Amino acid sequence: MDATAVAVVNEGALLMKTLRTMTTAALLACAALGAHAAPLIYSSSQFAADAVAVAGTVADVDSKTSPPDAAPLVSSAVATSGGNFASALGFAGGGLLVAQSEASSGGQATSAVGTASFEGLFSLDRAGHLKFFIDLIDEDFTDAGQFSDASLFFTLTFEGTTYANLLLTGADDPFSLQINLPGAGTGMFSLLLASEASALNGNAANFAQAQFVVTVPEPGTIALLLGAGLVGWVTRRRRGERALTTA
Fold this sequence. Notes:
The chain is an alpha+beta fold.
């Protein structure tokens, strides 16, 4: 691993320490939103972090998955060729996903992709709802004519039925969603955060971060919510608060 790659790894380690503190703050904030809710418990879960960097004809790839790798995960890739440079980073652990990409071109095509993902399997013993809270950051540092972007893919399935299959961007931040599930059963919740950058005779970079918490009502509150006729609601806020309620 060359000096540039070592620098990227060290940067990732520092970033990881900082983001752990931010994750704790996010968890406390979400707990305050629902005094009668508890975090969703997963029977099994998996994190993954991937990084791909290409500069001209030089490429670097790094991939980690937990398990078997120990979480939190940090994957990084660096590629250099003459005056061309590309780097990517993926971080996944706890309730936090981070992805970043950078491409700097001095005449050759350069590109980078960083991804981070989570999958969690859960079971419910009765009808109820899940609440999802996601704080999404999407920042671009890109010259005109170059490309950078980030996306967050959100999926929820329960007993073979897809209840959510969403593509979120920074415009959706902060995002909250309540999904009502009809009875006992098993489901899967997944998030995939992707950061992309590509350049030719220019510079492009993207930083993306998603903090997430999923809660389930405590048993004593389920009957109260159903008795009130609450079927579902979705709340999206951007520069203030907006609410949409459906019966």
